[in-house]
Amino acid sequence: MNTPNHIPAEKFQTALLGWYARGHRAMPWRDENASPYHIWLAEVMLQQTTVTAVIPYYQRFLHRFPTLQSLAEAPIDDVLQHWQGLGYYRRAHMLHKCAQTLMRDHNGQFPVTEAELLNLPGLGPYTAAVIAATAFNTAANVVDGNVERVISRLYRVQQELPAARTTLRNLADHLASPAEPRLYANAIMELGSQVCTPTTPQCLLCPVAQWCEANQHGDQTTYPRKAPKKQTPHHTATAWLITDASGHIYLQQRPATGLLASLYELPHSGWEPKSTPQQAPLMLETQTECGSITHVFSHFKLTLNLLHTEVTNIPAANRFHPEALPALSTLMRKALTHALKQT
Ligand code: SF4
Q1: Where would I find the HhH-GPD domain in this sequence (predicted)?
Q2: Which tens digit of pLDDT belongs to each residue from 122-139?
Q3: d(CA 262, CA 79)
Q4: Domains of the chain: residue spans and CATH
Q5: Is 43 a catalytic residue?
Q6: I need a labelling partner for 212 at 20 to 30 A (CA). Which of 25, 153, 259, 305 fits?
């Protein structure tokens, strides 16, 4: 790896911004009318999801919650309902909490600097930086996974992720444009997403190829270096589809804190290593098998075996029609859809 100065920052910025000005993808949160609220919402949704997948969720969410105030005043169940399908529901809880904090403590306005934004609930270094740069055009070091890949290749950073993160941030900071924070942040993220891709970087089309060490060595796809992954644990559990004669389904609500907080679910036996195994909540006499599903969480894989039974009575608080379901996690929607097809 060379020193940061082997790439002249101003020439790099000119090449990158010129390329971006010649054309880039249109995104609703990048148009001229996009407010800080729009940009923040999009960035939170994009944390674990692709741009193409996010757009319909983003539009549906904004249709229901057009302003920060409408989001802050909404019940959390309503927010979760509109988050369904995006997964990682903690993001929806933090979004709601942050909207309430902004309304209560900031007069409904986002602060403009990276440092102030970092104090808001749920905003990490990347989200704070991207809002500061793209919503307010203030200087900020925006480094997401795409930018890490570009920087690691430009400098052939040998250190492995995640330990390399500080080095990559420092190198990214050297190249960032203090004069054009918004354009620069959008341009370098677009380069990583569209040109400097993980497995097939388009180096012949790259506006900064002349400074790229990995391109010169022909080992682009070996960067960023990553520490070997640990094997993912695999857990097995049982979930029950309980219906009554009219086709209503028994669902229970999860606690208001912790994994998948406040979402509804089929009763199940528990799957986290420390969870207490549960039995089905009603007296179940006849149970029929209805297959299984496998779901991958961030830190383990789960196989959920599904059993079906019909009961005469479901308590009102737990009784839901299949066409009017409350907010369910991705896992539980998958399990319910699969089980219903088998019955
Ligand atoms: S030259 Fe290739 S590897 Fe280097 S930054 Fe450009 S696309 Fe990425």
Answers
A1: 45-194
A2: 999 999 999 999 999 999
A3: 11
A4: 4-222 (1.10.340.30), 234-342 (3.90.79.10)
A5: yes
A6: 25
